[in-house]
Write a structure and sequence with these properties.
Elements (H helix, E strand, L loop, with lengths): L15 H8 L5 E7 L8 E7 L17 H14 L2 E7 L1 H7 L1 H15 L6 E5 L10 E4 L2 H4 L1 H24 L5 H4 L5 H10 L10 H7 L20
Parallel strand pairs: 1-4, 4-5
Antiparallel strand pairs: 1-2, 2-3
Length: 231
């Protein structure tokens, strides 16, 4: 495994992991991340991004640290300037069937494999992704300290938020345009009052408890938290 920088401070140089890898001969470095892991409703979305060496990182950050307008602006820049971008989605029914963590790994692998250009190295956020078939490194808080993972987090977040805005038009009672499917008080109240809609993750214990039904499918297996946008 390539020797890479250690801990990072609050003013981290976002490009330093990629720069060190390029010094070691890895030219095409992909970052991969997902959005929607902790949501009670809606898809899980994963994105993989390969940025060029000269990409302007001004404004690029962990998607959760950006405003919606900032994310949209960065998203447009990433799509215009990236070497390659790929996005994959898992439906709520697929998450219920496979389980959350298995769906997450499946999506992250799928996003990397869907890139039109094969990367030389893959950076992932938080935990290893097995069976990539490529050299890789998982980085704690990777979306906050690594340029390509931050870019992937932005792409995944924007794609998912846009999908939730569309779902809001079909299911307006849950406030998906505001909560994006996460377990806010407004969302939990609506779920308890009118029950789940077709895009709720019915294998999640909190969804079943609020709706007064038994969980179906695979067990909820590790989202960062039911009430906020942890991922």
């Amino acid at each position: 495994m390539a020797a890479l920088p250690g801990g990072v401070g609050p003013l981290a140089d976002l490009g330093r992991y990629e720069r060190r890898l390029r010094e070691q001969g890895f030219r095409l470095i992909a970052g991969v991340d997902e959005a929607g892991r902790g949501a009670l409703a809606g898809p899980l979305v994963a994105a993989a991004v390969i940025l060029p060496e000269d990409f302007d990182l001004e404004g690029i950050d962990d998607s959760k640290a950006l405003t919606p307008a900032e994310r949209e602006a960065c998203y447009a820049r990433i799509l215009a300037g990236a070497v390659a971008v790929a996005v994959r989605r898992a439906t709520p029914a697929g998450i219920d069937r496979r389980g959350l963590h298995r769906s997450n790994l499946w999506l992250l692998r799928g996003a990397v494999r869907a890139l039109p250009v094969r990367p030389d190295y893959v950076l992932t956020d938080g935990f290893p992704v097995p069976r990539l078939g490529l050299p890789s490194l998982s980085i704690r808080k990777g979306d906050a300290v690594t340029a390509s993972v931050a870019a992937a987090s932005i792409v995944a977040k924007v794609v998912r938020d846009r999908a939730m805005a569309r779902y809001h038009r079909r299911f307006p009672a849950y406030g998906f345009d505001r909560n994006k499917g996460y377990g806010t008080a407004e969302h939990r109240e609506a779920l308890a009052r009118i029950g789940p809609c077709p895009i709720h993750r019915r294998s999640f214990a909190l969804v079943a408890a609020l709706a007064g039904v038994e969980p179906i499918g695979a067990a909820y297996d590790g989202a960062e938290g039911p009430t906020g946008e942890g991922a």
